[in-house]
Amino acid sequence: MANFNQDKMMKNTLAPLAVLAVTAFTAPAFAAGSQTADDQAATIRQLEQRIEQLENTLNERVGMLADAIEQQQPAEASRVSIGGYGELNYHNLNADGEDDKQIDFRRWVMFLGYRFSDTISFHSEFEVEHTVVPGSDGEGAVELEQAYLEFKVADNTQIKTGIQLTPVGIVNETHEPTTYYGVERPVLETTIIPTTWYVAGVMLSQQFSNGLSYDVFISEGLKTEDPTTDSDADAFDLKAGKQKTSNADAFDLATTVRVRYTGVSGLELAAYAQYQPDLDQSAEDSYAESATLLGGHAIYQLGDVTAKAMIARWDLAGDDAKAAGKDVQDGAQVELSWKVLEQVGVFGRQTVWSVEDGVDQAQTNLGVNYYPHPDVVLKADYQLQNEDAGNSDGFYLGMGYQF
């Protein structure tokens, strides 16, 4: 805008300068006194016409220059994209007579992207968790959850390289608080699928006109805790194995494949698999072996009613995992939601999961989302757990936004 204002100033000042220049050039002709009064008047009229033509020409050309600059500035600005989301959560729970009441600004996130050309773009996500780093409970974090280049190699094919979200589950890739029900993210996708699960690697994605698409992702793998150096370590705690691309060991890369179908209006079907060759990343003293994740989900929206179902299962190889009762870690959830009004939706969700043999956890959530704006949400839900899940019952309140 500053350049545009300068051009307007130039437009307003060049014409008078041109008039002065022409007047100075013709002044000697009048000083000679060789013309009659009628001739001088005719000459003046001709000069005025020429000056007017010159002024119009200058105004037109300066105006064209200013318009070109003004059009160029938005085009440059449109290469940059900025967005973000955040959420504030409160819970009031009781577990076996013990009260648990907390308020927490869980996440503050900024997105920044840049389009280098029609075929190359950059995407990033920067996050602050729990407001303070480190927090008093050690949970505060600053994380770079996405930072990747996307190359469009065809109209329906992309290659992405950098830090990316693993293409599994329902909310791992899309987890802005306005996009799901419940104050907290669904428990199946924070336990069996360790959302938010981001890794560095290379992904190939392709979409077809019939609604079918696929992703193939080669990335850093998990590295679980090492019990050979820490007696309290859990070699089969998969969530604790996320390396987050922070000096991540990459001796044994993971392979993830997803196939998705959206060819029917309101329907989404997806199946995914991941193979981890070695959970200890080829440690000198091996403490874990391979792990395989299989999962899938179905989402169907009919009018104002949406039904979701999801399953996920890890199979961990090796006698040690079996002896620890953690060779199979799995779970399932079903959710039904109804948009009662344009701004109000209610939901119910039932989840069962197990990360250890003989420990069968279950949780029920019932709640409501209120949207004063499509990108702003106020939430409330009530939670019930069985004893294996912690017997933690109570309510949650939250607010969230995205832009």
Q: How are the SSEs placed, and which strands pair?
A:
Elements: H1 2-31, H2 37-77, E1 80-95, E2 98-115, E3 120-129, E4 141-154, E5 157-165, H3 188-191, E6 198-207, E7 212-219, E8 254-261, E9 267-276, E10 291-302, E11 305-316, H4 319-323, E12 328-341, E13 344-356, E14 359-373, E15 376-385, E16 392-402
Antiparallel strand pairs: 1-2, 1-16, 2-3, 3-4, 4-5, 5-6, 6-7, 7-8, 8-9, 9-10, 10-11, 11-12, 12-13, 13-14, 14-15, 15-16
Pick out its properties.
403 residues, alpha+beta, 16-stranded antiparallel barrel, 4 helices, elongated, disordered N terminus
In short:
With 403 residues, the chain is an alpha+beta fold. It is 20% helix and 47% strand.
Give the proportion of residues in helices. Answer: 10-25%
Give the strand order, joined by hyphens, for the main sheet: 1-2-3-4-5-6-7-8-9-10-11-12-13-14-15-16
Q: Give the class from helix and strand content and strand pairing.
A: alpha+beta
Task: Please state the CA-atom Rg, rounded to the nearest Å.
Answer: 32 Å
**Beginning-to-end CA distance, first to last residue:** 25 Å
Number of strand elements: 16
Mean pLDDT: 90
Count of DSSP-assigned helices: 4
Overall description:
This protein has 403 residues and is an alpha+beta fold. Helix content is 20%, strand content 47%. It contains 4 helices and 16 strands. It has helices at 2-31, 37-77, 188-191, 319-323; strands spanning 80-95, 98-115, 120-129, 141-154, 157-165, 198-207, 212-219, 254-261, 267-276, 291-302, 305-316, 328-341, 344-356, 359-373, 376-385, 392-402. Strands 1-2-3-4-5-6-7-8-9-10-11-12-13-14-15-16 form a 16-stranded antiparallel β-barrel. Helix 1 packs antiparallel against helix 2. It is elongated, with a radius of gyration of 32 Å. The model is unreliable at 1-32 (pLDDT under 50).
